[in-house]
Specification:
Layout (H helix, E strand, L loop, with lengths): L1 H8 L25 E4 L9 E6 L2 H12 L6 H11 L7 E4 L4 H7 L3 H5 L1 H6 L3 E2 L4 E3 L11 H8 L3 E3 L11 E8 L4 H11 L5 E9 L3
Parallel strand pairs: 2-8, 3-4, 3-7, 7-8
Antiparallel strand pairs: 1-2, 5-6
The site of zinc ion has 8 residues, from loops.
Length: 209
């Protein structure tokens, strides 16, 4: 009741474009993610798919989620991912872990959240408890390729008491945005040390080159 009156005087605005929304977290126009399903451009040694184009609209949506902690925007991406991502063939889904400082600031790992419905639908175990970031990475975009490489080496570690779970498993690594592919490649290489049956990679968003 009160919220109805509130909405008459202060209609909800779409956080991406500013248009009035009909009580939805995003206006209908901004809910249309551009399906990309790109999987050929990066040579990272593992099969990958970037599901949605990381365009201007997607950038604003992700910024809302990450920096303004607007978790209301997540369900529609969760559903869209389920609809448009290739069918999963893995057993374990491992989201790229945040560094502990960022996790503490944000209170959630957006990648794990975005992949939740996808994992449930295909019967994958969503496992945020297998790998961790051993050190904080600097802003990678600012570094030269060599320094970036050095910075990413040894970033990911498998917890000692989880190492026995990885041999012969089919693993799907998920990241919210795949740009150079260096982060997911490094994580895949770390996991490969434990002899899983296969490793594939899914990026929710991927910039169009
Ligand atoms: Zn909008």
């Amino acid at each position: 009741m009160l919220s109805q009156f509130w909405n008459i005087f202060f209609p909800l605005r779409c956080p991406v474009c500013g248009a009035a929304t009909d009580n939805a977290p995003l206006c209908p126009g901004c809910q249309k993610l551009t399906v990309y399903n790109e999987s050929a451009q990066l040579k990272i040694g593992y099969p990958y798919t970037g599901v949605f184009e990381y365009d201007e609209r997607a950038r604003k949506i992700i910024a809302e989620i990450k920096y303004r902690k607007n978790r209301e925007l997540m369900p529609f991406i969760q559903r869209a991912l389920l609809r448009h991502a290739p069918a999963a063939r893995a057993e374990i889904l491992i989201p790229v872990p945040l560094n502990p400082v960022r996790y503490k600031e944000r209170g959630f790992n957006q990648t794990a959240e975005l992949a939740r419905d996808y994992a449930a639908y295909y019967g994958l175990q969503l496992r945020s408890d297998i790998v961790y970031r051993a050190k904080n990475t600097q802003k990678l975009a600012a570094l030269s390729p060599d320094l970036r490489r050095a910075e990413l080496d040894y970033v990911f570690k498998v917890w000692d008491n989880k190492q026995a779970e990885l041999p012969d498993k089919k693993i799907l690594i998920v990241d919210d945005i795949i740009t150079t592919g260096q982060t997911v490649k490094t994580l895949a290489e770390t996991l490969a040390l434990y002899k899983p049956a296969s490793i594939e990679i899914l990026g929710v968003f991927r910039p169009r080159l």
